[in-house]
Amino acid sequence: MALTTARALALLLTACAGAPLAAQPAAQPPPIPVPASPTLSMPPPADAVVLFGGADLSNWARTDGAPATWRLAEGAMVAGGGDIMSQEKFQDVQLHLEWMEPDMPQASGQGRGNSGVMLQARYEVQVLDSYGIDEPGTGDCGALYGQYAALVNACRPPLEWQTYDMVFRAPRFNPDGTQAEPARLTVLQNGIVILNNVLVKGINCGPLDPDLKNPGPLVLQDHGCPVEYRNIWIVHLPESGSDAYEGHRQ
Ligand code: MG
Fold first, then answer.
1. CA 131 – ligand 1 centroid, Å
2. pLDDT one-digit tens code per residue, 44-73
3. What pLDDT, in 10s, does the model give residues 6-44?
4. Residue 114 CA, ligand 1 centroid: distance in Å
5. What is the CB-side half-sphere exposure of residue 150 using CA atoms within 13 A?
6. Across residues 199-209, what is the average pLDDT?
7. Centre of ligand 1 from the C-alpha of residue 41, in Å
8. CA 126–ligand 1 middle distance (angstroms)
9. CA 46 to ligand 1 centroid distance, Å
10. Distance 223 CA to ligand 1 centre (A)
11. So what's the pLDDT on residue 242?
C-alpha cells in the first residue's frame, strides 16, 4: 500500500510539474491456453467421405495428375513431392482434418512449417507454425490467406496434433451466370472459432479450375516443410434444407 501511495504521489507531482507522463506500454493479454482439440481423432460420420484414413494415398494425386508421393508415417502423410489433390470434388462441404507442425526453430515467418489447405483448389487456409505470436495476421496460421486473419491465435505447439473443422459454402450464381453470393467460410482450429462465416473475396491460390461454378478438390500444399496430415474426411452438404414444416409427431 505504501509503495502504491508513494507512486501515486510521485505521478501526481510529475503531472503537476507539467512534465509529460511516460507512455505506459499497453498490457499484452496473456496467450489463450489452447488445450488438445475436442475433435482430435473424431470418427468420421456415417455419411462422410474419407479422403485419408492413414493407410494409403489412393484418394490423392499430384495436382499435375502424377501419382502422389507424400511419405506415409504412422497413420499420417508427410508433405513432400509437390501439392496433392483429392480425387473427390465438392461444393458445400464440412471438412475435418488433423495436422502437425514440424519443429523448425531455425526457420521463421513463411518458412516455418508452411503448408496450406486449399478448398476447391481455390481458397487457401494457411497452415504455418504461428504458435505463440500475439496477433496473427493474414499470412499466419488460420488465415484465409491474404484476406482474413484468424480471430485469435488458436495454435498448438509444433509436434502436437491440431485440428481444422471447416464449413464451406460455395458461391451462388444467378440463372444468367453472374455471381449472386460469394463463398463463405467458417473455421474452427482446435475447437476454437477463428474464421466466422467470412465472405470469401475470391481465389487466393493458383486454381486448378478458375470457373467458380464448378466443384473442386481439396488440395494440400507442399511448401517444402514436412507438415504431417491425418484423419481427413468431408461431408457433402446440400445447398439448403426443406422449407416445409413437418410439425410435431404424435
Ligand atoms: Mg501456405
1. 15
2. 999 999 999 999 999 999 999 999 999 999
3. 444 444 334 334 444 556 666 666 667 899 999 999 999
4. 5
5. 28
6. 96
7. 23
8. 5
9. 31
10. 7
11. 87
- Ligand 1 centroid, distance to 26 Cα (angstroms): 31
The alpha carbon of 116 and the centre of ligand 1 are apart by a number of angstroms equal to 4
pTM of this structure? 0.86
Query: DSSP for the chain?
Result: -HHHHHHHHHHHHHHHTTPPPPPPPPPPPPPPP-PSPTTTTPPPPTT-EEEE-SS--TTEEETTSSBP-PEEETTEEE--SS-EEEEEEESSEEEEEEEE----TT--GGGSS-EEEEETTTEEEEE---TT-SS--TTSTT-BTTTB--SS--PPPTTSEEEEEEEEE--EE-TTS-EEE--EEEEEETTEEEEEEEE--S--S--S---TTS-EEEEE---SS--EEEEEEEEE--S-----------
Q: How far is the CA of 78 from the centre of ligand 1 (A)?
A: 15
C-alpha 108 to ligand 1 mean position (Å): 13
In the chain, where the domains are located = 48-236
Distance of CA 117 from the midpoint of ligand 1 (Å): 8
Q: Cα(163) to centroid of ligand 1, in Å?
A: 16
CATH topology of domain 48-236: Jelly Rolls (2.60.120)
Measure the N-to-C terminal CA separation of the chain; round to a whole number of Å: 69
